Structures are given as C-alpha cells and as structure tokens.
Hints:
The chain is α/β, with parallel strands linked by helices. It has one domain: Dihydrofolate Reductase, subunit A (3-Layer(aba) Sandwich), CATH 3.40.430.10. The protein has 7 helices and 10 strands. A 10-stranded mixed β-sheet has the order 1-9-10-8-2-7-3-4-5-6, with helices on both faces.
Amino acid sequence: MRRLLPEPAAIGVDPYEAYGDLPRLRLGMVMSADGSVTDAEGWTDGLGGAADFRVFRTLRALADGIVVGAGTVRTGRLGPARLRDDLRARRGGPPAPIVVVSRSLDLDWTLPLFTEAETPTIVVTTRTAESRVPGRLRVVAAGEDDVDLPAAVRALREDLGHEHLLCEGGPSLAAALIRASLVDELCLNIAPTLLGGARHTRLLEGLDAEVPLDPAALYLDEGVLFVRYRLRA
Length: 233
Ligand SMILES: NC(=O)c1ccc[n+]([C@@H]2O[C@H](COP(=O)([O-])OP(=O)(O)OC[C@H]3O[C@@H](n4cnc5c(N)ncnc54)[C@H](OP(=O)(O)O)[C@@H]3O)[C@@H](O)[C@H]2O)c1
C-alpha cells in the first residue's frame, strides 16, 4: 500500500500502522467509483478485491466493536468475526464482537453470526423489543420504541468497554450515525470500477443535511484508493 497523502511515502506502508490512530467511531465502507456500495450480486465482495479485504480485515482487527445494521445482516452474507493468525497476534486477543443494530429484531437467530461467534455477537435494540432477543446473546437496550444511537454507543463504551468502534454500514445505519454526529472518521475504499446497473446502492441512505469533510489521508493499493476523511464537529 502506497501513501499519497498527507505526504507521499517512498516505501510501502503497513495498513495496521497506518490505520492504528483510532478515532472513537470510524465508518469503513467500500464503493465503486460511480458510488455503489453493492456489487452485481447485491453484496460487497466483488467490489474491492484483495487490497480492499486487507484493509477491511485490518480495520476489524483494530476495533473494539464492529457495528452493522440489521439490513446488512439480512443479506445472510455476514459471518461471525474471525481473525487471521497474524492479525490475532498483533491484536493480542480474540476478535472484536459484531454489534447488530435492529429495531424490529426481524433477524434469523440461526445464522452462524448468532450461534458460532468466537466473541459473542451483541444486539442493540429498543427497551420495548429487548425481551425478544434470545437469552444466549448479549443485548444493549437504548431508547423506548426507536434505537437511541447516542445512548447505545455510550453503553457500548461505558458498560461493555468497547471504546473504539468500527461501523461497516450499511447505508441506512451509516447515515443515522452521521446524523447523530457520532462518526469521527469515514474510511472510504474506492474500487477501480464503474458498476452502473439496477443494483446500484448509494453510500448513504437518508442523510438530509450537508456534512463537511476534511481529507486526512490517501493510500493506493492495487488500483483501490483508500481515502480517510475526518468529519467536522
Ligand atoms: N459496501 C459496503 O461497505 C457495505 C457495507 C455494509 C452493507 N452494504 C450493503 O448495504 C445493504 C444493506 O444496507 P441497508 O441500508 O439496507 O441496511 P443497514 O444500514 O445495514 O441496516 C438498517 C437497519 O438498521 C436498523 N436500525 C436501527 N436503528 C436505526 C437507525 N436509527 N437508523 C437506521 N437503521 C437503524 C434497522 O433495522 P430493523 O429493520 O431490523 O429495525 C434498519 O432497517 C446491503 O445490500 C449490503 O450488502 C455495503
């Protein structure tokens, strides 16, 4: 991976070190150059290739909790967090838990994400719905009938000790976290491809205000551009 900004580096940079300055909440997503976060299959695997996966795995290994929206879980493609041996050694412990945010709890509890995770998956939901989460799972209840995202993030940090969070999307949850001013950094991996087509899914769904960004770093690896933006407070 080559660093182009803040100043170009002559030799390759190690993603684990490059992304090691952890913000409190980092949003990490991949999209095509024409702005789609889903590939032709409606998932993300076909977008960024091996270079994207290296950074994806690195961001997971660095995080204390990996937050995803229920819509992403409902694709059925999200497995439990796993760590490769090299990243496990650098992290010095098991993977961070996946944290699923859902109001409806319309989720398939038989998915490996809920039954086979080395670090048990956490469900964030409302106080009204919390009793419907299977007892073997950890639950954070925040808000009465709608998920109170600031309260949920506070509980993840203060009650469960997950200080540095990574949100992997999808577009609805990502926009909701930005609306609530909870996102400090956007790590956008731009795949060198134009997708077009009917399956085009935008990066953010439901963001109704302009949010200024400060570019903080730019890397290039196998044609994928890795941009890091700070969100202005
Ligand atoms: N390229 C990438 O990096 C990337 C990453 C992730 C996902 N994706 C793609 O994105 C798509 C899924 O995205 P999505 O937007 O449909 O779903 P999503 O953002 O993953 O999840 C949305 C769901 O989160 C729950 N939620 C709880 N509180 C919320 C709040 N305040 N605001 C918003 N959501 C809240 C709701 O679940 P309930 O409905 O259960 O109440 C809501 O339906 C999939 O196609 C996936 O492949 C792409």
